[in-house]
Amino acid sequence: MKAGRHNNRTYPTAGTENVEGKNTVLLRYIRDKVNQLLQIMGTKPLREEELNDESLIAIDPIGIIAESFEQVLEHLKESNRQLQLARDYLQAVFDTAGVGISIIDRDMRIIKCNEKQKELLANGIALIEGKHCYEVYCGMDSPSLMCPAIETLETGRAVMLKEVTKKGRVFQIATSPLKDKSGDIIGVVEVNMDITEKKRAEDAMCQSEKLAAVGQLAAGIAHELNNPLGNILGYAKLLLMDENPSEPQRERVKVIVEQAKKGSGIIKSLLEFSHQKMPVFEKISINTCIEQALQSLHGETEGINIEISTRLGDVPHIMADPKQMEQVVYNILLNAVQSMEGRGGTVEVSSESANGSVEVTIKDDGPGIHREHLCRIFEPFFTTKPVGKGTGLGLSICSEILKKHGSNIRVESEKGKGAKFYFRLKDGIPDV
Amino acid sequence: MTDKIEINLDTINLDIRGQICPACLLISLKEINKHKETLRCRGANLVVKTDHRDATRTIPDAATAMGYTVSVEKKKGYYEITVGLEHEGRQA
Lengths: 432, 92
Prior knowledge:
The complex is a heterodimer.
Chain A: E1 5-6, E2 9-10, H1 16-40, H2 53-59, H3 61-96, E3 100-105, E4 110-113, H4 115-121, H5 133-136, H6 148-155, E5 159-166, E6 169-179, E7 185-194, H7 196-241, H8 247-274, E8 282-284, H9 286-301, E9 306-312, E10 318-320, H10 322-339, E11 345-354, E12 357-364, H11 371-374, H12 394-404, E13 410-413, E14 419-425
Parallel strand pairs in A: 9-11
Antiparallel strand pairs in A: 1-2, 3-4, 3-7, 5-6, 6-7, 8-10, 11-12, 12-14, 13-14
Chain B: E1 4-7, E2 11-15, H1 23-34, H2 36-41, E3 45-50, H3 55-65, E4 69-74, E5 79-84
């Protein structure tokens, strides 16, 4: 710079050579910065022959690039906003889906899962992400052999399991591969649909269809057998009234009567089962029903070493069909007594009040029920008794009667440790 | 520089044949910036004619980063690069 005067002070001034030198440095600087910015834009550096210094300054490259960056920034901001929006929408869909969704990596670790999945299979487990899916969802130390996620990871194919029980509930599970841009499988998307209620309804429907078919068959057979059996019984009784038969003949006719009566009893059970009536509700004391059932059972316990005790509490009266309730108690008691035939034992019948309801318990110290029989004892015609000793309808009838009273019969038993049957009845007419 | 610019309602034509990169890019960016509103709000297109092959990469890259949709078409002896906002029938 040239020296100049300013406020009586003298400044050094540059010569022409100095100005040109400075300009060259500045132009070099501008060219370098432009090239740096062009490199960021993905293109080559400027060549001198392409744009001379004069044209370079005239075109204002830094201004152009700065303005372009402003548009790049605006575009990035808009893209980010749209991405965030899309992410929020996806998250909302993910979280409000009626099925459990889980994303699992190749090491079987949970990357992400939705709220439904947590509710279904990870309730109470903190920090699910990063844990092994088989630990959190299946409660196992290693994946099961049937794991659909492993099959999907190995084959790359979608897999569906129609019915899997996990943590006491039934699920339909579908897995599909999660791929990266190059098509490599990086994980699995697992969808768990809770079908417990659907399965229960299907089973109930199946059971009720089975019951209806059995009932129809039973009614037909009972009707056809009732008349000939009545004739056998009638004529046998007439023979007994006759004075002519010898004593051995009389004994044989007695056997005929006894067996015919037994046959009638079976037919009666079949008819009861097939023509189960709707309960006639009235205000009753369950204790009275228990006492009447015990009276009816009196003949069955004669001559066998079985002690029946009662512990009847001060229970409220409830709306129920007294005859049907008596039958429920009788059938359970008869089962208990028959299970202890030949070995003796004790049976206790108790009633107690429970939150405005009445709970009836029949407990015996008999041989108990085998674990695999427990789930079948309420099925019609299921029996473990010898042929001719039972129809397998008693508990099935109990179960149906209690259902119509809005209740369920429950059983707890272990082989060799007796059995406990109990049911709870609420006051009021159930909506069934 | 003797670049030719033509503007009609829908298209802004920029002929930079004879120019090479990165000047091609700078000139194109300058036009994009200049006609930002027309391109963004009125749905117009900037059509760049260039005979420099590198420009068919550098201009689309830069314009895409700025949020525009770009298509390149090879014509007889030159390329036609169309820059605009995304609409049906155009490919990035």
